[in-house]
Design a protein that fits this description.
- The chain is mainly alpha-helical and 449 residues long.
- It has one domain: Up-down Bundle (Growth Hormone, Chain: A).
- It is 76% helix and 0% strand.
- Helix 2 runs antiparallel to helix 16 and helix 10 (262-278) packs across helix 19 (414-424).
């Protein structure tokens, strides 16, 4: 008997042990996916100046960090998009489990290789390799979970899957703080040890290889047909593709434009506060570095906690209100929280805690994509369709971090420039509200074979 359909061993939320094992495998894959993807942003204030031969903490180093953080984040998103689209097709062709294994090994090795980069250009290449695997993992994992769990628990399983993103961000924050703030305090070298932790997903890939089988839905249907991206734009699927894309692209632009610069904003606020309190200028660089890492942890934890709660709230929102009303609430909340965080005159430390409502909405909305996008497409096209609609928007979203970094780097005061630009990011979720008529409601719809 197929373990995925063993009704005699029902457990929590009407799912048996094997179904929870599948969710755990995909959850770990997605969590380490986010962990590896965000490490660069956390170590950028030290890694970028070191690789460029600049003194850490100087105005030149801060400006260069803003510029290169924008470029590296944009390249990550482009690679993520390519990987998501390519490996989405691969997952429909060779299976979800095999694709999950390949992509996890790819981003683990690519991230760890960053530790040995002798210059910024080698770092760029390593990040591109990593980004291809990062993009491919989501499509395989989301499709696998949607096809294995019971129909009535698809929303819960999808939202629970995305809580792994908060785990990944919490872990990235913890590892960065412990490595750079406790174990290795030399900022010129400590960032290299952070990247070595990117190897952790390789162990999870081994777990996937041992315990996870291909979903029965895919074995019966998906393997018999070769999915084509062009099918997504046929009359049968065009409206589904456009609606999913519009919700995903606006969410991606907002999330990456804001989250990519949390370390820079937090360290900038900490530096300003420390200098104002001590009048010591940059002479106290070690103290500023430690305070900066503490403030990054505060802002990131607020963002992550909000994201975790917001992700779980997509379950009642989607099941009670429907997908369209859920998107409306989250996008209006995202616009309001960003405007408040970067538009109001606030004390530096107070501004950090406003990352909580930003996380609740900007981060939380992503809990819906792991169940909404797989709902739109049949089994043979599910990973291709989900991977395409979720990831094609990253080509457009890639301009967000690049523009934020470029504009902020050109200002006389990098922190104030970044805050002004981030305020205008609030217009993106407002645009999503106007796109809602294009969204197809899937509440109560069974997963199509």
């Amino acid at each position: 008997m197929d373990p995925a359909n063993n009704a005699a061993r029902r457990t929590f939320l009407d799912m048996n042990g094997y179904q929870w094992t599948v969710i755990l495998a995909a959850w770990l894959g997605w969590g380490f996916d986010i962990f590896d993807s965000i490490l660069m942003n956390y170590v950028a204030p030290n890694a970028v100046p070191t690789l460029l031969g600049l003194q850490i903490g100087t105005p030149e180093a801060q400006s260069a960090t803003l510029w290169w953080t924008g470029i590296l984040t944009s390249l990550l998103l482009v690679g993520w998009a390519v990987g998501g689209i390519v490996f989405g097709k691969v997952a429909d062709r060779i299976g979800r489990t095999k694709t999950l294994l390949i992509t996890m090994l790819m981003y683990a090795l690519g991230t760890a290789a960053c530790a040995f980069a002798p210059n910024i250009w080698v770092l760029v290449v390593c990040r591109i390799v990593s980004s291809l695997g990062i993009g491919g993992e989501w499509a395989a994992g989301a499709a696998m979970v949607a096809e294995v769990v019971p129909e009535k628990r698809r929303v819960e399983a999808g939202a629970l899957l995305y809580t792994a993103a908060s785990f990944g961000l919490f872990l990235a924050t913890f590892v960065t703080y412990q490595v750079t703030g406790v174990f290795f305090t030399d900022p010129a070298t400590s960032w290299r040890y952070v990247f070595l932790f990117g190897l952790a997903p390789a162990a999870v890939a081994f777990f996937v290889r041992l315990f996870i089988k291909e979903p029965e839905r895919w074995k019966k249907v998906g393997s018999e047909h070769r999915a084509k991206i062009s099918e997504l734009f046929t009359p049968k699927y065009r409206a589904l593709t456009i609606g999913g894309f519009l919700m995903a692209v606006t969410a991606l632009i907002t999330w990456w434009s804001g989250n990519a610069f949390i370390p820079i904003v937090a360290k900038g606020l900490a530096s300003r506060e420390w200098i104002d309190l001590t009048n010591a200028g940059v002479a106290g660089l070690p103290a500023i570095e430690l305070m900066g890492q503490q403030w990054i942890r505060t802002a990131t934890n607020a963002f992550n906690l909000g994201g975790l709660i917001g992700t779980l709230l997509t379950i009642p929102a989607a099941k009670l209100l429907g997908r369209k009303k859920m998107f409306l609430i989250y996008n209006l909340g995202a616009a309001a929280s960003i405007m408040a965080a970067f538009g109001l005159d606030l004390a530096p430390h107070t501004r950090l805690y406003l990352y909580f409502p930003i996380g609740l909405t900007v981060f939380g909305i992503f809990g819906s994509f792991t169940f909404y996008l797989p709902e739109l497409f049949p089994t043979r096209l599910r990973a291709t369709g989900s991977g395409f609609t979720y990831n094609i928007g990253r080509f457009i979203a890639a301009f967000g971090p690049f523009l934020v970094g470029s504009i902020a780097a050109s200002g006389a005061n990098a922190l104030d420039s970044a805050i002004r630009v981030l305020f205008w990011i609030s217009m993106v979720p407002l645009a999503a509200v106007f796109f809602l008529p294009f969204v197809v409601e899937t509440k109560g719809r069974a997963l199509e074979d």
